Amino acid sequence: MGVEVKVEGLSMAFGRQQVWEDVSLTLPAGEVSVMLGPSGTGKTVFLKSLVGLLKPQRGTVHVDGCNMVRDRERDVFEARKMFGLMFQDGALFGSMTLFDNIAFPLREHTRKKEREIRDIVMERMELVGLVGAEDKLPGEISGGMRKRAGLARALVLDPQIILCDEPDSGLDPVRTALLSQLLIDVNTQIDATMLIVTHNIDIASTVPDNMGMLYRRSLVTFGPREALLTSEEPVVAQFLNGSPHGPIGMTEEKDSATLDAELAMGNGLDFQTREIVPQLEPSPGLPPRAAVHRRRERVLGMLATLPHAAREAILATMPGHTHPTPPPAAPDAETLAMEPLRVDPSTWSPRPEGQA
């Protein structure tokens, strides 16, 4: 099973440019999470900070007892072996075949023999649907195949945490849908903790157990996907609806004068609530996701802390969970007048003589 990643008070800046500050969240073990946000909000920087490739100025990232921000580089290097990284462009070596690209981490970081390496690589290539393409070069295959090869390479060291940086970038809607299903299937089979950075609302609404959003150098929200998809926060609603009207501008945030002008023109922020579609399930033939039961117990435990709309959406999408039956309404006077009088003989006694 994957391991929990606990982020507390993380702040990152490059010189005077503050990327984000005081970010705190927990990636639950074995669950799939998504991080949304407009371009330029530091989502990729956040991924690199989790794995210890960049060092934030403040805060901690705890992974299985190691602080990826402050611990010795030797300890961080060892903890980094728990991670698998799927880069935005695949980051494949153009002069290597797909087989050699996927085998590269095994040859660099283990002492396994070539026969064992071949078995592992072919197993991972089969997992992502690339059997038969072992001898092809990255330049000879489609963008979707390069994405899958990048995912296979991220899986060869049996990671407990998988970080995916915009895996849908450059893919058409069909390939994006296939990749979404592949990510769910991978989580089903290896039960790893996963964090996906994306702009794609279809991936965000169908794949994850949890969702978060970075905006204006801070974490707007992070929690069960239903909480974000029903959020009334203007920046979240604008992003989910893909509307030009709202706090997000071409660079990042709009100033108050621009927002006031939009409101004066009737371009308000009363966005239509996005329909919550069912989360993707594993492909036929695969077992149920182990994360589903763990998430159910965790989310039901925090239900009382969530907004009403999120609670309703969570209860509606949880299989086997029903709303409590409301008490029957009290009958009105007209109904009572039409009902026959029913008397319980055990409690009835004759009226004493002389009483009206």
Automatic annotation (TrEMBL):
Q: What PANTHER family does the database record attribute to this sequence?
A: INTERMEMBRANE PHOSPHOLIPID TRANSPORT SYSTEM ATP-BINDING PROTEIN MLAF (PTHR43023:SF6), PROTEIN TRIGALACTOSYLDIACYLGLYCEROL 3, CHLOROPLASTIC (PTHR43023)
Q: Does the record bear ATP-binding in its keywords? A: yes
Q: Which GO terms describe its molecular function?
A: ATP binding; ATP hydrolysis activity
This protein's UniProt keywords: ATP-binding, Nucleotide-binding, Transport
Q: What is this protein called?
A: Putative ribonucleotide transport ATP-binding protein mkl
Which domain of life, per UniProt? Bacteria
* Residue span of region Disordered: 318-356
**InterPro entries reported in the protein's UniProt record:** AAA+_ATPase, ABC_transporter-like_ATP-bd, ABC_transporter-like_CS, P-loop_NTPase
What SMART domains would the database entry show? AAA (SM00382)
Q: Which Gene3D superfamilies match?
A: P-loop containing nucleotide triphosphate hydrolases
Location of the ABC transporter domain: 5-241
Decide whether keyword Transport is in the record. yes
